[in-house]
Amino acid sequence: MSTSHDWLPQNHQELHSMLIQMWAYLSTTEVLNRLGFTAVEDHPSAGERDAVPINLSPIGKWLFNFYKPRHDVYIEAYTAWSNTAKRSAEHNLTLKNTEKDVKEAVRQLYIYIKANPITTDEDKLEMGFPVHEDTVHTPSAVPDSWPVAEVLNPSVGVLHFQFTDSKSHKRGKPKGVHGALIRWLVSETMPAHWEELINKTFATSQPITLVFDVSMQGKTIYYSTCWENNAGKQGLFSPIAKAIIA
Description:
alpha+beta
């Protein structure tokens, strides 16, 4: 994985998935405290995850007063843009501008993260950041199994993908795997090969969530999944399966 600016995903959906995962990991009590974003061990309880910790360090104040507002504006713009039935040129422009702002903020955050001696390679990988070139890091072997998906439909237009491993039959990702990739397509006919599934969503934790406009209700989504190691190498893709957007 490159340490240039190109390590940030260029695909809208992939960038959105990365930033959701990054904030979910970074905003936990343990990570905020350990990486120095709080001056003391003081953070809202699990039921108050969106609240701002009281005792912030200087970098913590930057995180919540500079980065987080740009993150929130971007998420709002992405949500509006993802409604394909109502998408307009204004939505495209707003997403472009908010992506530019949040990417610059993420790059600034990465400068702190990689310079922090407490930060581990696992921290960087969980946040979607590249591992610095001067660290000793041996990529895991290319996965020789694939994620078997269980698809849940908790609310209208929302699909949750939870995984077990095709080889071990255990829930979650196997040892040495960084995350799961879903390639998918809403179509009336089944694609012949997973390469025809042009949409991609990656995450390091599950479930992976896809959200669709209500106008997509009743349509069929075809998907195929694979594991990725910590060097971004993809393993075997699963047979193409389908689910109904309810």
